[in-house]
Amino acid sequence: MKLSDFDYVLPENLIAQEPLKDRSASRLLVLDKNTGEVAHKVFKDILAYVNPGDCLVFNDTRVIPARLFGMRVDTKATIELLLLKRRDINSWETLVKPGKKARIGAEIIFGNGELKGKIEAVLESGNRVIRFEYNGVFEEILEKLGHMPLPPYITKKLEDKERYQTVYSKNNGSAAAPTAGLHFTNELMDKLKSKGVQIAFVTLHVGLGTFRPVKTENVLEHEMHSEYFNIQKEEADKINNAKKNGGRIISVGTTSTRTLESSCDELGNVIARDGWTDIFIYPGYKFKVIDSIITNFHLPKSTLLMLVSALAGKENVLHAYKVAVESEYRFFSFGDAMMIV
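Given the sequence above, the corresponding structure tokens read:
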């Protein structure tokens, strides 16, 4: 399977730079995975594509202000950190810019010295392990000093930080938002419940690995980074009961999909547990849990595009993307949505 098989042409002007004021007013392209047919709708129209007894599964992770700007103690040079993965209470795996001079032992101060860090290790990936020192609560200091880690293709400043959070976000820990969920409003969630649709939540803290470009032409040589997930028993029971009673399992986003497919038995029963997943889903994968997915439009040659191609077929997905480009849909994190049914 070649990386070039998952490429498509995207005009730069179609990359959404800011979210719509009304979350549920985004456009929705509905793709039938069996026939390849597409329909053009508005996001709130998903009510017509779900049935009583279906179960929508959301990722309730919350993005932390994971981007920090500090100064090296020895050279006074500015240094940028992106917090990726918490290793223990005061130690984090981070992406550091510029990285070449960020050697073991280098000390960094942030703000007015409320937060200090020391590089303890350089990992094989090039990421740095940094141990922090501070007085008080780390999360409160991060809220004060940190910045929202928007993807590099978004160059416009985000005025309202909450627009890069889902309305149901709960558990702090992500370096990026589970963007398929950004289209949901509290009103839409209430309407889904009123229709008899089950709502279940899982947690997967989105790391940078999900968005790292695939650099090998042979897709199978790509190595996924691991991300932490958690599924509570009550939520697993909701999903399993819906499936047992004939309802569809509809994942909201690729992160919910990867969580569910990482924690199930061969019959597709979801197991309540927490752990780390590096599951890589690409065409040929047989889904055990999900029947349908709500997702955004993904970058060319990305593992996320491969995941949706595994569900709907590469030809169907690339055709739908071609239609979306021709119809001037908005792409990526703040863009429009696709539902594969």
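The first strand starts at residue 27 and ends at 31. Try to locate this feature in the token string yourself.
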